Amino acid sequence: xxxxxxxxxxxxxxLVLLHALPLDSTMWDTVRVELSDIDVLTFDxxxxxxxxxxxxxxxxxxxxxxxxxxxxxxLDELGIKMIALGGLxxxxxxAADFTAAHPEMVAGLAxxxxxxxxxxxxxxAFRRGVAEQADRGEGYDAVKDWTTTMVGxxxxxxxxxxxxxxxxALPNDGLAWIQRxxxxxxxxSGSVSLVKGPVYFVRGTEDPxxxxxxxxxxxxxxxxxxxxxxxxxxxxxxxxxxxxxxxxLKDFYSHAVRWESTRH
Length: 264
Description:
By secondary structure, this protein is α/β, with parallel strands linked by helices. It is 45% helix and 15% strand. It is built from twelve helices and seven strands. α1 links the parallel β2 and β3. α3 packs across α4 (90-101).
């Protein structure tokens, strides 16, 4: 089964956080420190961290639905019926997938530096190209420039170096599978309208991939939208400014808890 880590005081409404590529759930470690008073549950994507490879979970065509199914099975095993769900980048896409499949379980949704529509042909071709590089054991070559192109201009060198070390350690087979899965995913823009609790849209002001305009359009489809920007941050807010991101997630979680309490 898919690997997870749970910290903080256990509750009936954990905060589930899904990570970005090409990292694993340890991406959330610094943020987790700031959320020590919250029930936080993180998962490793198929083929990353301690999780089994995607092919072991589903031997069919790669699809993010496999990740969603694995999350649901683990939540069922843990007896969890409701979650506050957040995801960054790839994790946001999977969070939207989960919401579309199990809206009754989602008390709140936080989409961070992500796009939840389907890929156009160019983007699909890019992902499949990355997958082919990873098949050759060259996944790092596809992402090595991200420490320059995907972080804020003033990001300290030590953070860039930390990201680079983890990029170099990426699992090539995991990256290949998940990129093909992302290329095959469906448009989940409508999933935000399924959430009756709070929906947060969080982006770094220097993120080149998730625009404020796209989040504003999605926000029009929700009952309780909040758009939050983190100044000077690119695509990896959990590394670039974890304290600021944790504050937003605390606010998000408190709103989800309040909304959930009004249902009973």
